[in-house]
Amino acid sequence: QRMISLKNLTKVYGQGEESIKVLDNLDIDVAAGEILAVVGPSGAGKSTLAQCINLLERPTSGQIIVNGEDLARLPERKLRVARRRIGTIFQSASLLSRRTAAENIALPLQYLGVTPAETKSRVGELLEREGLSHRATHYPFELSGGQLQRVGIARALALRPAVLLSDEATSGLDPETTRSVVALLRELRDDLDLAVVFITHEMDTVLHVADSAARLHAGRIAEQGSLLELLTDH
Ligand code: ADP
Ligand code: ADP
Distance between the two ends of the chain, CA-based, in angstroms? Predict the structure, then answer.
């Protein structure tokens, strides 16, 4: 059972002679309970891919199938709801600085009109799952890099998405913090049966986090397979 499938995904920027094909016919499948890493050098198309997956950019052609539904061609008014199926974490956790950890996690639920009681219970559950209960009322400036990223993960999971997209989320973290974030992602993929797309330029991290990997080069998938296959091909 495929949780997220990209089929013939193509993204072209610009028109005519000025146009540039940034993603060229990508096919990527990630099952529930799987972490797929997408690695590639700068300029390979990783951010564009991330923006297509979290529905901020429309692909020029191709499909983005989540839970059996193609989200690539949804009308604008349906995108906001569809976005809930995909939680995103970024390089900087990008939390609101004047809100506590708990308030940051609660935001997506409040926007959605989830009742205060339900919000409180879900936020409490998420904080506990991520070992952050003792940091609930702390502000971002009072948290370590790893704690910030964990709050970011909790916020991304608040709406119970099927897919978690990690867009360079461990880039810029020190090795130890990276390890703890990676361990958490692996735990979450097991406990919540999440399909995780882990986009990074850091090959080292991929070895620790992913079940399988795709190597992106100039908008195309140069290689795809188990980590072992990817390593032994070099
Ligand atoms: P990466 O994240 O792997 O560095 P990007 O997706 O940022 O790759 O960029 C891939 C290519 O697409 C680059 O050549 C970049 O200049 C080009 N590109 C990205 N966004 C746009 C845009 N909005 N308009 C035109 N070209 C773009
Ligand atoms: P249920 O949703 O019926 O409780 P699940 O197996 O989906 O059963 O969830 C197990 C536990 O994990 C529950 O406590 C649930 O609230 C919580 N949970 C499920 N999905 C998520 C998610 N994406 N983020 C945070 N908590 C979740």
Answer: 30
Question: From ligand 2's centre to the CA of 94, what distance in Å?
Answer: 24
The residues pairing with 12 across neighbouring beta strands, listed in sequence order, are 21
Q: Which atom of ligand 2 is nearest to the CA of 125?
A: 26
| 61-66 sheet: strands from edge to edge | 20-31, 2-13, 61-66, 69-70
Residue 230 — pLDDT band, cuts 50, 70, 90?
A: confident
Residue 55 vs residue 1, higher pLDDT:
55
Calculate the alpha carbon distances from 60 to 53, 147, 161, 219 in Å. 13, 37, 25, 13
Please give the pLDDT value at position 16: 87
Question: Pairing state of beta strands 35-39 and 20-31?
Answer: unpaired
**Does the beta carbon of 98 sit less than 6 angstroms from any atom of ligand 2?**
no
CA 169 to chain centre: 8
Q: With beta carbons less than 8 A apart as the criterion, state whether 182 and 206 touch.
A: no
CA of 63 to the centre of ligand 1 (A): 20
In 28-130, alpha helices (H): 46-53, 76-82, 101-111, 116-129
Question: Using a 6 Å CB cutoff, which residues line ligand 1?
Answer: 13, 20, 22, 40, 42-48
Closest residue to atom 18 of ligand 1, CA basis: 22
pLDDT 10s digits, 39-97 = 999 999 999 999 999 999 999 999 999 999 999 999 999 998 899 999 999 988 889 99
